Amino acid sequence: MYKGFESAWQAHLANIKPGERNKPDLALRFSRFFEQSAPAGTGLRAQIKHQENTLGQAKAAWLDQHVTRDKNVAASGFTVGDKTRLAALWRERLDWLALAPQRRFLAKMQVKQKFVSGCGQDHPLENGFSWHPLLATPWLPGAALKGLARAFATHWLAWPAEDVQACFGDTPPQPSQAHTPSNMGGVIFFDMLPCAPVVLQQDVMTPHIGDWILQGDQIQQPLQEWQRLPAPWHNPVPIPFLCVQAGEFALALQAQPGLDQALFARLCDCVQEALDVAGAGAKTASGYGRFRCAMSHADICTQLQVEQEAREKELTQQAEQKAAEQASLAAQQAAAQRLALPEEVRLEYCLQAVLAELANENVLANYLLHKQFKTLLADYGLSTAQVGAAMWQHAELGKLLRRWKSSKKALQVRVLQIFPQPK
Fold this sequence. Notes:
alpha+beta; 3-stranded antiparallel beta sheet; 8 strands
């Protein structure tokens, strides 16, 4: 089984450019297909019989070969996580926040130095790594975040017991005790997931008093068992492990109904301070696991408001454009219907428009000379000659035009020049 997977894995690595990773394969390879089942005398299993520093080199070589692939990339780090999926997940978080910004909290936290989680998981490298089961990326479970925040509020900030219970619930029950809804607490802690691909790097620890740590309490005769005593002459044991070198994670919290809004705001500040000061994950005493706020909740809410306004403006413009298109289409259809009418009907419509201005001769003259009347003619597909002939034949309009022939008013003269009397 191992040989078949190993050949397929090597073929897959050959198709990957340096610095690029197929993220799910990387997590699967690290977690499930370590070379621990290889035949005796081959691979890392045979090398573990060598001295301690050789063992460390062998583990580092395995990470170089199967995880970081080449040493130059391992030195500078490499990214894991599907960019499209993580961007979609962050978009979902933003939409989730927009539904209830007062009862929900969202911030983007950035790794300050390095972050590692899951070192205590069993792994042949002696240091495991916590991979998200679906995203194949580093993550911090919501339960771990809740435990960190509870400890920080209790021991660092000395919160009152009633506030701790309101936010975090009762003291976690023993395994033999049943969980009840009453001890869940008033705040939901979501998993901290990456907002974008994160950078992993191979790091190393070099303990040199391992025997003292593991067997120091069993020493009976220190002079005869001096090898177990902590001393500077012991050889350091290099133990490689993976850690997050850089990345941004989404911190999401939600207040349950009934929780005081001011207390929820205090809790949000407490969680951010805990991540910044105490750190999360493993090796926090060595400075790992610190996060700083890269994008605050207020900035995210402002961004959502700007996006909402832009979306509403775009929808308004689309509605106006659609209305204009519909109006234009209706006008075209109406024009087509008008042009389909018989000529005598179209002439009748034009004459009715002229008769509507007959009460005042000056107004009528201006109307006949105005472009509005020319537009009317174009809408009905008529020429000035056709309309002029109809006007001279009309009883009232013809009488008026004959009277204008003897007039010397400039407007009336111009009208007669456009609509001369047919011969």
